[in-house]
Design brief:
With 172 residues, this protein is an alpha+beta fold. Helix content is 19%, strand content 33%. The strands form two sheets. Strands 4, 6, 7, 9, 10 and 11 form a six-stranded mixed sheet that branches. Strands 1, 2, 3, 5 and 8 form a five-stranded mixed sheet that branches. Strand 6 (104-108) and strand 7 (114-117) form a beta hairpin. The N and C termini lie far apart (68 Å). The structure holds dinuclear copper ion. Dinuclear copper ion is lined by residues 75, 104, 152, 154-156, 160, 163.
Amino acid sequence: MAVHPLERRWAWIATLMLVAMIVLVAYTAVVMKIHPPSNVETIDSTRLHLTSEFAEDNLGVKRGDDGAVVARIVMARYMVHPPEITLPAGVPIVIRAASPDVLHGLHVAGTNIGTQVVPGYVAQVHTTIHFEDVAKVGIANADGSVTVPIYCNEYCGLGHQSMWGRVKVTRR
Ligand code: CUA
């Protein structure tokens, strides 16, 4: 069966595009270390505020037993709880987030912190914040720290656009 030259050309172009995209994905994953969040850990979203790790008193930034900085955040229509957290730059941190209602997105400007917060699951991000990066997009405070916003970046209802919080990043 003869293949029309035009069809053959487009088959090559489509193949090249596919190869280019696979190379791009591999490059961002291996060199730029951009990975999709992959934490599979379930939680009872209907009882978040009562019994679990995400009860009100546990929210915010704590040092774990191993000295790691852990921030626990509840993303709920249409607020981020707590509304402001303080995180150190230059050290490994863990963000753990949960939703009691619908799907939200958690993005911190100037960082690579970006994950969906799916009800029923704990969203977890391991990263290190680079002070120079947040300094480019944030607001400088008198004490030398920088404040950047946390945005909800998944449409979650009529109040979605006003759902945001703050991260105060301190220099190490
Ligand atoms: Cu929460 Cu959009």
